[in-house]
Amino acid sequence: KCYLNLRKKEMKISMGLLLLILLSVQTFAQVEDIPYSDSVKLQWSDFVGIPDNSYGGAALTHGQLKYDLAYNNGQWLIHVYCFFNPDKSWVIDGKQTDYLLKHEQLHFDIFELYARKMRKAITEADITLETGQEILNNIFKEYYDKAKNIQKKYDKETNHSLNEDKQKEWNESIASELKELNEYSSVEIIK
Q1: What is the pTM of this model?
Q2: Which end of the chain is more exposed for a tag (fewer CB within 10 A), N or C?
Q3: Beta-carbon count within 10 A of 123 CB
Q4: Exposed/middle/buried for 149, CB within 10 Å: 0-12, 13-18, 19+?
């Protein structure tokens, strides 16, 4: 019976991941998402989306946080990813400055910061076979919501990079936090 319950849980997890994959597949060609890397920075050529003139900024970085998990041989294998989506990221033609690109890079860095915070929370959480899926869903939602809110705060305080003093403060703060959480830069967690 224990084996049967374990198989049912594995089946539920697999079905959930399959549904997530099916929902994210689109019928048109896409540019591949770019995984976060400390050593590779965004370039303007990565921004291939169509500009939204109603947005109010000169560029938009579309970052994503994703996770997957599996339970095998008594252990959870969890991956938390941070991606840049080129198809949904854009820049208004003629606005491609190095300064603005650094502002957009920091949006991507903020997503990675929250991926690291999520990895830390997962590492510290008491996750069992019975509670794992629910706990992971709650952690993901919490940190994804926080990432979205901090993105808005970042643009508001820097006025989309126009406030250079605030931009400098944000650059230093996010770089410091990323460094503090460097031990959580690996996408893989085994529990």
Answers
A1: 0.82
A2: N
A3: 14
A4: exposed
The residue count of the chain comes to 191
Q: Which of 119, 109, 49 is nearest to 78 (CA)?
A: 119
Candidates 138, 134, 145; CA nearest to 121 is 138
pLDDT of the chain, 191 residues: tens digit per residue: 444 444 555 545 554 444 444 344 443 556 899 999 999 999 999 999 999 988 878 999 999 999 999 988 889 999 999 999 999 999 999 999 999 999 999 999 999 999 999 999 999 999 888 888 899 999 999 999 999 999 999 999 999 999 999 999 999 999 999 999 999 999 999 98
Give, as one character, the DSSP assignment of residue 170.
H
